[in-house]
């Protein structure tokens, strides 16, 4: 890995295919259709590979829908909290399934979508929180704008609908899906009969080692048997879990009450979830602070005092030019990078199953300047 210019994202075909095989197996055993949620990972260079294993892609709006249509053979689904009038016609060119967030949006757009031959769905809110600690990832939190609650659901609109959708999970196992599905069925089950499909959203950590896939398969089959509908899953994270890295170099080391290293990658610009979620990303050949003899605080090269990736310990002192490899960096990274402080964007590198590395994309000054005027 030493010949390439850092920082760069490295996506590994072998690890990606391992995930894709698991997902394909789940789809085959359960009868569910599985889509890539592009929000988490939009490296379109590998969409043709993903399409060999998945049924299509899902989008959060016009641009993702277009990217999916242009590069990902298969179905294109879209959900938006509120569609824009000035984009809707264009969206009809790209998406097959339209999921709306509210009765008003349904009223405004559903007939137009149907007349264009599209499938129409409504996102519902089963009002069943199953996650602790991450309120910003909980669409069932009080006051949520995401999904129609039973109180706001208008059964008179059923003739407009082909399906229902809920998305309530984040990095969760299938026991939480079961809890949510029970709550969904208690509220909306009667309305699902007669429709064509149910979309169970994303947040299913299907490819994680401890994920209970048997239960997921049983739940999907239960829905299909009970209601006679197709079932969709639209994971983002699970598709690329542990399939990517962020390779970075040490630019400088200093000491201020503790050892500090400045890297050529930034939490704020290249892995903003580290600050937003927040979490401490795994780093190869490192330990918890104090676990190995040399502990460093790793930070980025921006002016933001809080541009800190975390504290890690090492077997040996760090030196200028040392390479560090952050793990699990394919998801919610490339799609969220920014050029704050004029930071360059990391290159995107593909490692095929024979170990050959290819730079798929490099970025430069124009990518910084092009967003400004
Ligand atoms: C974010 C999102 C997903 C994907 O979620 P992951 O946690 O990446 O699996 C799927 N569907 C919807 C509607 C989403 O908002």
UniProtKB/TrEMBL annotation:
Keyword Lyase: yes
Gene3D superfamilies (alphabetical): Alanine racemase, Lyase, Ornithine Decarboxylase, Chain A, domain 1
Pfam families cross-referenced by the UniProt entry: Orn_DAP_Arg_deC
Enzyme type, top EC level: lyase
Keyword Lyase attached: yes
EC number: 4.1.1.96
Keyword annotations of the record: Decarboxylase, Lyase, Pyridoxal phosphate, Spermidine biosynthesis
All residue ranges annotated as the Orn/DAP/Arg decarboxylase 2 C-terminal domain in the record: 138-329
Alphabetized NCBIfam families for the sequence: nspC (TIGR01047)
PANTHER family reported in the protein's UniProt record: CARBOXYNORSPERMIDINE_CARBOXYSPERMIDINE DECARBOXYLASE, DIAMINOPIMELATE DECARBOXYLASE
Protein name in UniProt: Carboxynorspermidine decarboxylase
Source organism of the structure: Pseudoflavonifractor intestinihominis
Highest classification ranks of the organism: Bacteria, Bacillati, Bacillota, Clostridia, Eubacteriales
């Amino acid at each position: 890995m030493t010949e390439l210019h850092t920082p760069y994202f490295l996506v590994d075909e072998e690890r990606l295919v391992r995930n894709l095989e698991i997902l394909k197996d789940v789809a085959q055993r359960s009868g569910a259709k599985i889509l890539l949620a592009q929000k988490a990972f939009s490296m379109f260079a590998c969409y043709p590979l993903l399409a060999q294993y998945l049924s299509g892609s899902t989008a959060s709006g016009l641009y993702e829908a277009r990217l999916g249509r242009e590069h990902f053979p298969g179905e294109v689904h879209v959900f938006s909290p509120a569609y824009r009038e000035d984009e809707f016609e264009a969206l009809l060119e790209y998406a097959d399934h339209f999921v709306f967030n509210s009765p008003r949006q349904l009223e405004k757009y559903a007939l137009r979508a149907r007349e264009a031959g599209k499938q129409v769905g409504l996102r519902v809110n089963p009002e069943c929180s199953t996650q602790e600690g991450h309120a910003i990832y909980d669409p069932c939190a009080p006051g949520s704008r995401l999904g129609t609650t039973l109180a706001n659901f208008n059964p008179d609109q059923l003739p407009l609908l082909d399906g229902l959708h809920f998305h309530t999970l984040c990095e969760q196992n299938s026991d939480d899906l079961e809890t949510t599905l029970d709550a969904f069925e208690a509220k909306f089950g009667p309305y699902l009969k007669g429709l064509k499909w149910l979309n169970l959203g994303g947040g299913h950590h299907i490819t994680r080692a401890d994920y209970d896939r048997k239960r997921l398969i049983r739940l999907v089959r239960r829905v299909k048997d009970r209601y006679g509908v197709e079932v969709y899953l639209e994971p983002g994270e699970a598709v690329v879990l542990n399939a990517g890295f962020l390779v970075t170099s040490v630019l400088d080391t200093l000491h201020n009450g503790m050892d500090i290293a400045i890297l050529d990658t930034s939490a704020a610009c290249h892995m903003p979830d580290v600050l937003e979620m927040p979490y401490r990303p795994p780093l190869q050949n490192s330990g918890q602070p104090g676990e190995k003899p040399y502990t460093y605080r790793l930070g980025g090269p921006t002016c933001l005092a809080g541009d800190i990736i975390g504290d890690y310990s090492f077997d040996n002192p760090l030196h200028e030019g040392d390479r560090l490899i952050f793990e699990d960096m394919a998801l919610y990274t490339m799609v969220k990078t920014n050029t704050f402080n004029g930071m360059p964007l990391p290159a995107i590198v593909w490692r095929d199953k024979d170990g050959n590395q290819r730079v798929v994309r490099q970025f430069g000054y124009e990518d910084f300047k092009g967003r400004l005027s």
